[in-house]
Amino acid sequence: MSYQTISTSNVVEFIPRQEQPVKADIENGYTKIANELLEALCLVHLSSRQHRVFLAVVRKTYGFNKKNDWLTVEQLCELIGYDSDYRNVCADLRELKARKLILQEGRKIGPNPVVSEWVLIKPRCSKSTTKVVENNHQPSGRNQPPKCSKSTTQVVENNHYRCLKSTTTKDKKDNKPKNTNPKDNARQKKSAALDLSNLPAWLSVASMEEFIRHRREIRKPLTPLALSKLVGKLETFRAQGHDVQSILDESIANGWQGVFEPKGPRQTANVVDWNDTSWGDDLGEW
After folding, report:
1. Which of 107, 181, 237, 255 could disulfide-pair with 242, CB 3.0 to 4.6 Å?
2. What is the pLDDT of residues 112-154, one digit of tens each?
């Protein structure tokens, strides 16, 4: 029996490379942060990315002894190691601004040092409210978010958070008038008939009724005051020698809301002056 000898002289043992540990040291720089801000940051309810974005804002401002600075989204994404859609970071900045964690002055942003203004817990209030709750003490269950019903408005104020939403209460809904249908209101307006008994003798009642019906059809019904103004305007046109019936017919045919003076030549009105005796001058002597 023969045995084959295997040489192990060419086998190389790879030793894993050990990276040098990175130790944080204030000698390499530090950021001054108030203890109240850190304590409020421990209580605030944010998503993981929102936490990182807020800390990036702190680093880019307080880390350079600035209260705010002009920061780009690319800078924040690079600092938090985020390589996905940058619009998500923009949404986080809007959320932090809405909850008063950061302030904006022009194009500059920075942390809000007034931590009492922070909304630590995102309110889960519905779109309708009117119940006001004021509490200067910690609610039951530490920093529990206010739960607003669909028909109440809840304002919660305490030393840690403030949640405000405004809506319509059930009582206000009950106080609304029952008849809110615009079609019903239109019918009520149409049912109110205009008084045509005081029309002048030269104005035909049938013609005026046609014009009133025309105004209702174009959804511009006449009011008693508008009727009085209309009659006065027609009387002015009549005194100038125009035919009132033709004016009304022209407005209806053209779908006009009002009446207008015709552009054609005026008709001379046959007005008899019974006190005029000049006709006798042409008779001569008998």
Report:
1. 237
2. 999 999 999 887 755 544 444 444 444 444 455 555 444 444 4
Quick: pLDDT tens for 270-281: 545 556 666 556
Locus of tokens 């705010």: 68
Nearest to 207 by CA among 216, 196, 218: 196
Question: Average pLDDT, whole number, for the chain?
Answer: 76
For the chain, the straight-line distance linking the first and the last C-alpha, in angstroms and rounded, comes to: 181
Kindly indicate the confidence band of residue 50, based on its pLDDT and cuts at 50, 70 and 90. very high
DSSP string, 186-241: HHHHHHS----TT--TTS-HHHHHHHHHHHHHTT-PPPHHHHHHHHHHHHHHHHTT
**pLDDT bucket at 162, cuts 50 / 70 / 90:** very low
154 neighbors 169 (Cβ within 8 angstroms):
no
What single-letter amino acid sits at 106? Answer: G
Give the position of tokens 């050990």: 18
Q: Identify which of 176, 178, 95, 172 has the alpha carbon closest to the alpha carbon of residue 129.
A: 172
Amino acid at 11: V
Distance between CA atoms of residues 191 and 238, nearest Å? 31
Residue with tokens 């978010």: 145
pTM above the 0.70 mark? no
For residues 284 and 228, which has the higher predicted lDDT (pLDDT)?
A: 228
Phi, psi of 156 (to 5 degrees): -115, 125
What domains lie within the chain, and their CATH numbers?
31-117 (1.10.10.10), 121-174 (no CATH), 195-270 (no CATH)
Secondary structure element (H or E) that encloses residue 111, with its range: strand 108-111
Angle CA(179)–CA(150)–CA(119) in degrees, nearest 5?
135
> CA–CA separation, 80 vs 234, rounded Å?
79
Tokens 């003798």 sit on residue: 201
